[in-house]
Design goal:
Elements: H1 2-16, E1 29-31, E2 38-40, H2 52-59, E3 73-75, H3 88-100, E4 106-111, H4 118-138, E5 146-152, H5 163-169, E6 171-176
Parallel strand pairs: 4-5
Antiparallel strand pairs: 1-2, 3-6, 4-6
Family: Belongs to the Pal lipoprotein family.
InterPro entries: Bact_OuterMem_StrucFunc, OMP_bac, OmpA-like, OMPA-like_CS, OmpA-like_sf, Pal, Pal_lipo_C
Keywords: Cell cycle, Cell division, Cell outer membrane, Lipoprotein, Membrane, Palmitate, Signal
Length: 179
C-alpha cells in the first residue's frame, strides 16, 4: 500500500515538473561592416548557427550543464544509504528520462569513503546503488534497465583525509550505457 501511495505522489510531482517548449527567439541584429548599420540576421528561423559543440550540448540534455540531467551523483550522510531529499529531484529527473527513452540503460555505481573495512564499504556502496535503483523502479523504470555495482572505497573522487573529502566519496554515480 505504501508503495502505491508513494508511486502516486511521485508521479504527481513529476507531472507538475513537466517542461514547456521555449518561445522562439527573434534573430539577433548583425552589423553590416560596409555601412556600419545594424540589420537583422539573415539566417532562416529554426536554423542553428551555433558551433557544432554548442549544438551537440543543446541536443543532449544529459550533457547540458543547465539541465538537471547533467547532475549524475547522489551524495549520502556518513554510514547511510538513504537518498536525501535534496537529491530526490535528480533521481526523479533521471527516472523520467529513462521512461521517455526506453532504449537507454543505466549503471548505478555505489561508492563509500575510506573509513570502514573493505568488505563493509563494498556492502555499503551496493546498498547505496540499490536505494537509487529502488527509487527509480518506484518511478516506473524497469529493473531490467538498471544495473547496480559497488566500488566501495576503490573509486574515490577526492583522496585527502578529511570530512570535506570523504563527503565527496559517499555517493552513487548514474552512468548511462554507451557513454
Amino acid at each position: 500500500m505504501k508503495k502505491v501511495v508513494l508511486s502516486c505522489v511521485l508521479t504527481g510531482l513529476l507531472a507538475g515538473c513537466a517542461s514547456t517548449p521555449l518561445e522562439e527567439q527573434k534573430p539577433a541584429a548583425v552589423e553590416d561592416r560596409a555601412t556600419g548599420a545594424q540589420r537583422p540576421d539573415t539566417a532562416q528561423p529554426g536554423t542553428d548557427t551555433r558551433p557544432a559543440g554548442g549544438a551537440a550540448v543543446a541536443a543532449d540534455p544529459l550533457k547540458d550543464p543547465s539541465n538537471i540531467l547533467s547532475k549524475r551523483s547522489i551524495y549520502y550522510d556518513f554510514d547511510s544509504f538513504l537518498v536525501k531529499d535534496e537529491y530526490k529531484p535528480i533521481v526523479q529527473a533521471h527516472a523520467n528520462y529513462l521512461r521517455q527513452h526506453s532504449e537507454r540503460q543505466v549503471i548505478l555505481q555505489g561508492n563509500a569513503d575510506e573509513r570502514g573495512s573493505r568488505e563493509y564499504n563494498l556492502a555499503l556502496g551496493q546498498k547505496r546503488a540499490e536505494s537509487v535503483k529502488r527509487m527509480m523502479e518506484l518511478l516506473g523504470v524497469s529493473a531490467s534497465r538498471i544495473e547496480t555495482v559497488s566500488f566501495g572505497e576503490e573509486k574515490p573522487r577526492c583522496t585527502e583525509h578529511n570530512e570535506a573529502c570523504w563527503s565527496q566519496n559517499r555517493r552513487t554515480d548514474i552512468v548511462y550505457r554507451g557513454e
